[in-house]
Design brief:
alpha/beta; Rossmann fold; six-stranded parallel beta sheet; globular; two-stranded antiparallel ribbon
């Protein structure tokens, strides 16, 4: 566990918001750390990864540890945290229920191989401008299936519209950031296909296994205390700039 306070910048996934970290933030604080979460402009179809990164950087500006934050990217948040890390060379990255996808765009065929059949079959609402949102009943099962009924209902009601740019555009960075990274996967994830994610994680970790915890796609709500301990132990107490220093598989 970190020997001193760390700043965790929590970056939500598709259709989510800062609300989803409600139960994790106090658990991280209980361990002596500072944790903050931004609302990304996901419901603005004109916003892309650059604007998402701006929101994260604005959220941590001036806070203790903002020069070397621990960036936790959940699901689609994995597309944002490398952009933030490219602007904060001291940052470290944790990919939660996700793996790095590189700096390029993610096409529809590739995305189909990343998600579970259950997620792929879920009904979505579509907005005229191209934003999409999963149906509330499907969200309660696919995203929040391990949560108690009240939490699942509350979280499903909070889901926002999601614009397409974060997947469809290359990241606005010249190269993949030279930042230490860890990958945390949930074994019972019903949105991200676990076997695919574990295989990809090994590539990014140089053959090392990712951290695997029990639970679903939303451990920040279903298992917040376990997730807080896992995040706090990710880098083994290393100082900024130390640790694994992975930069991804050959060719990224």
């Amino acid at each position: 566990m970190f020997g001193r306070m760390a700043l965790f910048a929590l970056v939500h996934g598709s259709m989510h918001g800062a609300f989803c970290w409600r139960d994790l933030i106090p658990e991280l604080e209980r361990l002596g750390h500072l944790a903050v979460a931004a609302d990304l402009p996901c419901d603005d179809v004109a916003a892309g990864l650059g604007e998402y990164a701006d929101a994260v950087l604005s959220c941590i500006a001036g806070l203790p540890g903002s020069d070397a934050p621990i960036l936790v990217g959940h699901s689609l948040g994995s597309r944002t945290i490398p952009v933030v890390a490219a602007r904060r060379p001291g940052a470290r990255m944790v990919f939660l229920c996700s793996v790095p996808t590189g700096a390029g765009a993610v096409d529809g065929e590739a995305f189909a191989g990343m998600v579970t059949p259950e997620y792929a079959a879920a009904p979505f609402e579509a907005r005229a401008d191209g934003a999409r949102r999963i149906g509330a009943a499907a969200a309660r099962q696919v995203f929040f299936g391990e949560c108690d009924a009240g939490t699942a209902e509350w979280a499903a009601r909070q889901l926002r519209w999601q614009g397409p740019r974060p997947l469809a555009e290359p990241a606005p960075i010249p190269e993949w950031p030279d930042s230490a990274l860890e990958i945390v996967l949930a074994r019972e994830d019903r949105a991200v296909r676990f076997d695919w994610a574990r295989a990809q994680a090994r590539r990014w970790l140089g053959g090392r296994e990712p951290i695997v915890i029990p639970g679903d796609h939303s451990p920040f709500l279903s298992r917040p205390a376990l997730l807080a301990r896992t995040l706090a132990e990710c880098f083994g107490g290393t100082q900024p700039g130390a640790g694994s220093g992975q930069v991804g598989p050959a060719g990224r």
